[in-house]
Amino acid sequence: MIRRVLFLSLLLLQITILDAKVEKYIFPNGLKLLHKNTNANQIVAIEIFIDAGSVDEYIEDKNKLGIRNFIQSTIAKGTRKYSAEQINELIESIGGKLFTDTGEDYMEICVIVTKPYFEIGIDLIYEIYQNPTFLYKEVEKEREVILASISARKEDLFTTTYDMFNKLLYCNHPYAFPVTGTTETVKNITRQDLIKFHKKYFIPQNTIVVVVGNVDFDLVKHYVGRSFGKISAKKEYKVVSATSQQVVHGGCAENLEKEYKEKFNQAYIMVGYTAPEVSSPDYPKVKILNAMLSGGMSSRLFAVMREKKAYAYEVSSFYPTRKYKSRFVIYMGLDERFVDEAKENILKEVEKLKNSIPDEEEIVRVKHYTRGTYIMSHVTNKQQAWYLGWWELMGRGYEYDTTYIDEILSIGREELKTVAERLFLKPVVVKILPEK
């Protein structure tokens, strides 16, 4: 009875959230607009995605890695119309929120407002997108913040292990480097570099505007058109691409297992593999394999590594969505006495996925888990806007926000074994042990 109620609740959420109509319009200058009209509340989320992730940085200038992260840290710190203080005061005065972010495959600006302030929200996000000033004092202030965050990465055990793992897995592919850049490369970035970058990449053909909220499409199109729609298109807007860089699986190392001594009290281990990019037909199947290993307290890793073996409290896996070759990573924090034993047991669980077809009961549970967590990740208008823009930018199209679940539910048991055989080939292993 409880399962039936939960199933019906998720079905209702899916119909309400994911299956709502989305409208798309492309302005003459190449700008894409996505709009979803929701009447569940009075919140309006305005998302801007720029197709300019850190994945391109190594090709552009490897001495200035982290420039995109630097841009996102400074872009809302003053424009031609507003100072940094005025931007903060304006957002607070209307009860809104402002976010900026950058990732390996994208850059993002987001403003969240209530419906009565939608016009103000559009005007503000346009001003931040189009007219940042990158004042010297703000640039230098943010440089210190970024350098401090880079230093702080070394104090975190998971991040330290993950950075080492990515370097070993990806070699010189851009995904090998953290989005923040390094201390040396961030020091190399000048104010003029930020201005030149903004002029090159913040252009309509490279941009997606997403609006989700209780606002009519015609009104959204009008306000977006009178600002973003008026920006002149550029003939050449992207001259480099990470597609020219092939992932070299462990190509920087003589072997695919590395052990490091660091100043931490706990040990850490990561075991991972090169995994399919988002455009691959195997993408949803690998998502299911990931959920089988670490999707909840009924998952295989949790049952074996924590409940049966009692190696650690923290054990999980993840498979990030990426434009180019991604990674499938299993990680665990544990006592150093169990590191080698834990590694062997992780590899045993992986071999089980390769060598046997999972039973129907497990598959049904994992599919429902994956479907449920995906739907629940769309509860807010901000989250819905993010996914629409994300799928559009990643090349799957905004429609994939709905069809993703259909693909998940249609996966067969035999397919999972076949994909596991292709996926789990040569493991890359990084072990961090306490320095004594």
Describe the structure.
- The model has no long low-confidence stretch (mean pLDDT 90).
- This protein has a 6-stranded mixed sheet with strand order 1-2-6-3-5-4, sandwiched between helices. It has a 5-stranded mixed sheet with strand order 7-11-8-10-9, with helices on both faces.
- Helix content is 47%, strand content 17%.
- By secondary structure, it is an alpha+beta fold.
- Helix 13 packs across helix 17.
- The chain has helices at 2-18, 57-61, 67-74, 84-93, 118-130, 136-153, 157-170, 183-188, 191-201, 217-227, 283-294, 300-308, 339-355, 360-376, 381-393, 400-410, 413-423, and strands at 22-26, 32-37, 43-50, 97-102, 107-114, 207-213, 257-262, 267-275, 314-318, 326-334, 428-434.
Q: Helices and strands in order, then pairings?
A:
Layout: H1 2-18, E1 22-26, E2 32-37, E3 43-50, H2 57-61, H3 67-74, H4 84-93, E4 97-102, E5 107-114, H5 118-130, H6 136-153, H7 157-170, H8 183-188, H9 191-201, E6 207-213, H10 217-227, E7 257-262, E8 267-275, H11 283-294, H12 300-308, E9 314-318, E10 326-334, H13 339-355, H14 360-376, H15 381-393, H16 400-410, H17 413-423, E11 428-434
Parallel strand pairs: 2-6, 7-11
Antiparallel strand pairs: 1-2, 3-5, 3-6, 4-5, 8-10, 8-11, 9-10
